[in-house]
Every structure is written in C-alpha cells, then in structure tokens.
Amino acid sequence: YQLVETKAPAGYVLDATPIRFVVRQKDNGQIPNVDLGDKINYKGAAQLIKKSETGQVLAGAEFKVVDAKGQTVQAGLKSNQQGQVTVENLAPGNYQFVETKAPTGYLLNTKPVSFTIEAKYQGKQTVMANDNFVNYRGSAELVKENKTGQKLAGTEFKVVDAQGKTVQTGLTSNAKGIVKVTDLTPGDYQFIETKAPTGYLLNTDPVDFTIKNQANGKPSVVQVAKAFINYKGAFQIVKIDTSFHTLKGAEFTLYDSQKKPLNKKVISDNLGVVKFTDLAPGTYYYQETKAPKLDGQHDYVVNDSLIKVVIPDKFAGDPQVFKLGYFQNFKGKAAITKI
C-alpha cells in the first residue's frame, strides 16, 4: 500500500511523498498493525544572496517579506557574512523580498524579488529567490566643451564630498569630453576642475551633484551638467585722444611673453575699441603699430609703448573680456624759436 496525503493542514505545504508499506499476515493468521512513524508537514523557506556589482557578498542589508496582498509577514531579516538572507515558516503562496536598509555605502535597491512557496512539495522546500541580488553604488558624468560646443579632452577633475574631502582624483575627460566618476556612496558631491585643457583657462566653478540613496535596480548615471565650459582669455582697450574722444583706425599688434610678434593685429573700431580674443593663459604684450587717421591725414603720433598683459590660468566661469582701460594718442607738435 501507499499512504498519500491529499490535503495539508492549514498553512503547511502538502507533502506529496507517498509512504509505502506492506501488510503481512502472521502464521497464526493475525495481521499486526504497521507503525509508519511520523510524517512531517513543513512550512516553506526562501533565500537570496546579497552582492555588490563586482560580486562581493554584502552583510548587513535588511529585508522584509510581504505576501501577495502586500502585507508584511516577516521583517528585520538581515544578510549574514555570506550575504545570505533567509526567511522561514512561510505558508504556501506568493511573496516578495523587499530591501528596507542597504549595506553601508550602497544605494537601497527598491526592486522587489518575487518568489513562490509551492502548495505541494516532496520534503522540505527552500526556494532560492535570487542568488545575485545587487546593491549598487552611484556614478555621475559631465561633458567638457568650449564656448563653441567643441568637446575637450584632457581636462582633469577631482570629486569632493559635502565636507570638502577629496574622494576621487585624476578623473580625465575623454575624446568625447566626458568625465565620469563611479563607485560613489549616497550623498552630495562636487566636480572640481584641477587641470584645464591645453590653451584654456581653468574653470574654478564647482559643479554640484547628488547620488540618491535608493534606486529601482541599477541606478542611471547622474548627468551633472549639459556642458561644463572651458574658456579662453580676451582683453580690450579703448583708443582715445587727449580730449578723450574715441579714435577709429589705430592698429595694434600682439606679442608673446618673449616679445616676439604673434599673428594677431587688431584695428580700433568706431567706438575706439581694440579687442584681442581667443588667448591661452600666459603673458602677452601689445603695442600700437599704426596711428589713427583724421581727415585722411596721419596727424596722430604712434604711441609705441609696449604694454604687458597677463591672462590668468584660472577663472570662475566665463571671464568675458578683461577691460584694461584707455590707450591715448597725441597730436604732433612743432615749434620754432624767433631770434
């Protein structure tokens, strides 16, 4: 014969394992009772394993288990040193593991893990709900450009936390201008530029961003800024005469730090403005090389003073134009002495 369970006690798993037995008759014709021992009904159990994105097992994560109606059936379940989270004593039905506290330094993963305790099972039922339930850390990126939208490679950054402590350094923009930081715990941070691309001013404006403390599965990369711009320098002067009238048509030449002429000449406009742009950080000199005209005549004297200008190597945001003031021309004078 076989003894087969057809209905389990309320809240227990039906044990479908048959109990086989034989009834024998003794020589004297008696049929003895057969002791089948104990038959155990179990409740279900489930387990998941908590890991980091790199596969490291994580202790200290906390979970609750909810039933199909969203009611909490067990709470305060913690992952052990092997990353295992185990729940026991479950009646047949559908359940979810829901993380309620992330391991230190990780984002809470709000994506639930579903599992089922079957109503019928041979023996003790332990369900592996997930053997790789991941907690993630955060990441962020920004894009380096110049004023015209050209992507800039070779810019270096560090990332500091809310206390100003450096958490990562030496982050360099790639050929697409992208600077990316990974492996960040939840909190507030800043990108700070530490080295500008060649020929550009260091932009000292910090860029704030936040790594949120939870995500539904793998978090998306925080896009810190549409574009973080590096600028080049510029300066201007205004050409005037001794009566402070602006002068058009004066020619100026730019020189490098060794006082060698650069291929940059600018003519003062209708407002007397002389503007040199697109300058890398460094020391320059400018000099008037042609005086302005009046009524078609050269009646102003060239002011050939060689003036030093320094474009700083760093600036907060857009430096616009460094306005250096006025550059004066004089009319010529002649005199004779009556004897």
Question: Could you list some keywords that capture this structure?
Answer:
single chain, 339 residues, mainly beta, four-stranded antiparallel sheet, four-stranded mixed sheet, 31 strands, 0% helix
Q: Brief overview, please?
A:
The chain contains no helices and 31 strands. The chain is mainly beta and 339 residues long. A hairpin with a 4-residue loop joins strand 5 (62-67) and strand 6.
Strand content: over 45%
Overall body shape: rod-shaped
Spatial extent as radius of gyration: 40 Å
Number of helices: 0
Biggest sheet strand order reads 6-5-8-10
| Record field, number of beta strands | 31
Mean pLDDT, rounded to whole units? 91
Q: Helical amount among residues, as a percent range?
A: under 10%
Structural class based on helices, strands and sheet pairing: mainly beta
Rounded to the nearest angstrom, the distance between the terminal CA atoms is 154 Å
The description of the largest β-sheet is: 4 strands, antiparallel
Poorly predicted segments = 333-339
Instruction: Give the oligomeric state.
Output: single chain
How would you portray this structure in words?
The protein is mainly beta. Helix content is 0%, strand content 50%. The chain contains no helices and 31 strands. It has strands at 2-3, 14-15, 19-20, 44-52, 62-67, 72-78, 84-90, 93-101, 108-109, 113-117, 120-121, 126-135, 138-145, 156-161, 166-172, 178-184, 187-195, 202-203, 207-211, 214-215, 222-223, 228-229, 233-241, 251-255, 261-267, 273-279, 282-290, 300-301, 307-311, 314-315, 322-331. The protein has a four-stranded antiparallel β-sheet with strand order 6-5-8-10, with no helix packed on it. Strands 13, 16, 21 and 22 form a four-stranded mixed β-sheet that branches. A four-stranded antiparallel β-sheet has the order 15-14-17-19, with no helix packed on it. The chain is rod-shaped.
